[in-house]
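User: Run a structure prediction on this.
Assistant: Running it now.
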Amino acid sequence: MPFEQQSRREFLKTSALGVAGFSLLSNDLWAGHKKPMPRNIGVQLWSVKEDMNKDAKGTLEKVAKMGYKQVEGFGYSDGKFFGVPTDEYAKLLMDKGLKMPSAHGMITSKDYTNGQLSDAFKKMVDDAKKVGQKYVIAPYMADEDRSKGKFMAEMFNKAGEHCKAMGMKFGYHNHDFEFKEYDGVTMYKTLLDNTDKDLVTFEMDLYWVKFAKQEPIYWFKKYPGRFTHFHVKDHDPVKNVSVEVGVGDINFQQIFDNKLSGAKYFIVELEAFKRTPIEGIEISLNNLKKLKF
């Protein structure tokens, strides 16, 4: 496994509340008429995690100046985002003209006992509301929880009920392991079949679907309207790692043209870098803006 993929996974494992229809894109696809950016393009701040940890204010300013209007958070812990108290972080976003409709927040089977969610999870949801989140998205599933598919789905439904009561929605973000079989059924199917569509949404990471040799449109057709969020990063077919949007082999336009997904949010994420993370997310933004949604 490439280093950058492993480091992302290791972070999510150890953080208690962490926050085949593809073809090589032609140059013509990216040379289209420039148009105003759709309002729901954002960037997952994991892409610039080191910058955020060193200087959250300065990094958010750079993100805003390059044209992003939305970000997706991660790394919430003990009432703070990137070490900044929740209220201060909410003001920081506002001052930079940014919104954070969604953020990643880890939940494991240990957060669900006797049908009750942990106080730690509930606290995370409380603070998510304070910063204006509409979605709380679980970014990963711990190794020890992958044999508990139906139990995890039950917990996700319970998390969805709690989020709904707070005016939000709960979601789950995939990697590639969800497309492996557990007890003869893929984890992704188990989760989709056993969660309530009114309580639980899915953030499809298009790169990881490609990595798992799956076809996104297959899942859209089978479970229409379940995928309100896309993580948008491209796939290098030679090195088999993630790259900036527009420089890999994922046909994003074909995916976006299929409206069965229900996608509303298009979130740039980078895990591998040929240049600085800031430069990488700007390249991804500029290429993503050229596509039709």
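The first strand starts at residue 41 and ends at 44.
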